[in-house]
Design goal:
Strand content: 25-35%
Radius of gyration: 22 Å
Helix content: 25-40%
CATH topology of the largest domain: PH-domain like
Structural class: alpha+beta
Shape: elongated
CATH architecture of the largest domain: Roll
Number of strands: 8
Strand order of the largest sheet: 1-2-3-4-5
Length: about 180
Amino acid sequence: MTMAEPQGAQASPWEVGARVPQAHTDVLYETVIEPYRSLKPKAFRLLMIFVLLQGVIRSILFCAIGAWPLTAFMALDVGVVWFAFRASYRHARLFERVRLTRTALTVERVWPDGRRQNWELEPAWARILVENPGEHEVKVTLASRGVGVVLGAFLGPEQREAVAETLKGALSKRLAGRIG
């Protein structure tokens, strides 16, 4: 995934976006982190049409040579592919919202089933810890006074590092008094 601006605006999968809402001057930095899905819904429909057509064509060929029981496996193939992609799209509803104000740094994680987890950290004590930078297993943790929150575990390694750099920049600007 990607870093995206709230309220539906999408950034490219390699951009890290920050948004300062006009109505909330107390919000210094806000971003929504979402999983990146390269296969858009229209492409998914086209893929499923292709999978269905190849299943029908193979089923016809199997019936023509007398192997009609294999048609059930062709239908099963189509169903498994559809189910796997639907599960992937369902998981893509996971997102994390990071909001920095003058007095708090909040992280809200919303799971695909609607459950929410919230953390509120003291921004003056906040640190961004990056474990294994430059490697596939890079881990980004936001820590403050004994509380640690792993950010963007569903992102690719480059995107996790971009999240860390953007958030470090926002925290240092806040500390220097340059935001807001």
